[in-house]
Amino acid sequence: MSATTSVDDRLAAVEARLRRVEDELAITRLVLSYGPAVDSGSAEATAALWDDGGRYDFQDGAPVIEGSAAMASMVRSPGHRAHLARGCAHVLTAPAVRVDGDRAVALCYSLMHHYVSETGIFQVSRVSANRWELVRGPSGWRVGSRVNRLLTGDEAARALLAGG
Amino acid sequence: MSATTSVDDRLAAVEARLRRVEDELAITRLVLSYGPAVDSGSAEATAALWDDGGRYDFQDGAPVIEGSAAMASMVRSPGHRAHLARGCAHVLTAPAVRVDGDRAVALCYSLMHHYVSETGIFQVSRVSANRWELVRGPSGWRVGSRVNRLLTGDEAARALLAGG
Amino acid sequence: MSATTSVDDRLAAVEARLRRVEDELAITRLVLSYGPAVDSGSAEATAALWDDGGRYDFQDGAPVIEGSAAMASMVRSPGHRAHLARGCAHVLTAPAVRVDGDRAVALCYSLMHHYVSETGIFQVSRVSANRWELVRGPSGWRVGSRVNRLLTGDEAARALLAGG
Lengths: 164, 164, 164
Description:
Chain A is an alpha+beta fold. The first copy, chain A, contains five helices and seven strands.
């Protein structure tokens, strides 16, 4: 930086870069909090990751979950509880995050593991491409949209991962 | 920030935020160093992640490993060496980190993969919830306590993940 | 920091620390972008991760891929397309990054998952130790060298992970 750059300008530049770094870390933390939230059956903690009107399109052909209240209902559902009782892990990889002001996109993989009591080991039931769209709200970053597509050879998953 | 905020105050705020960011990255690096350390059989590198009196409670019902010297012994043990000779990977996901001054909590998953020579592919032998408690010491962040619980449907793993 | 430290010195220290943090995040983003790039069949995006003369030694005994143009060719190859059509995920864990000026080393795991249509679930076809050597160039961090070794019990993978 040139010797004539004022202290005020240097400080402003540092503050802006730091905010960019904090955004990237906050979004990473948000995505990495999803697994512990759903695998512990914490309905409120899961819902709090989503924007009030945020969406979760978790599978081609299945109904889209609309809104954070519906996320909480999903976690409390008998179907989800049956997963937990069997032994289940929603393993998410750290996302590649791209922040653009008050919006961001994050790409990662989710791998659903189930315990198989007959063999005593785990199976990888689902591997999905994940595209998260995040929005900065009054209380920080939240999920505006999350879309998952199974990596079973279909074009939909490839399109999701190409859009990063 | 208001125009009347002094340069000194702005600098102090930036320094504090930056330290918070560095802490989160240091803890992430610490957790992500565990796999390479144990899978390469590096006893000293593994021990150096732990506080001298740090604990590793790796399985319900098994003895807790107490202290960094005991961590080194674990890595040097015939049992651990047999894992390595067979083909083994301690795959840890990036942790969701929450820093609070000189203490921090990190939640992640560990997935132990073993090579199966009969099939030429790998099996997922164990999937565990991980809760790390970190402490800042004179030479940086170290593990004060790590607790793993298998995600086989038991309440213990869910309680661990809920406590983030 | 002592009360006599000048504003200029404090700013310079903050700028240097911030650059170190940005480097670590940029390298993490680079590594985490590999999976989405190859699994979407994005040849240019994959090539752009590598330095023009960067290398990818992906398997003991196989030819080393030399240069970013050869990376693009790999992604366009019939062999790679067959993987995608079958259903394939190159799942990389977040790397443990060590930055040293304009060079860096990152260690992580890669887990290749394939969809198995007969069973409807996924298999873990390969689990490899990964050592990335990164270089800072005129347009940011790029891969100078990436070496993978299968974790099938051979010494090569352990040596790779020990060198962090």
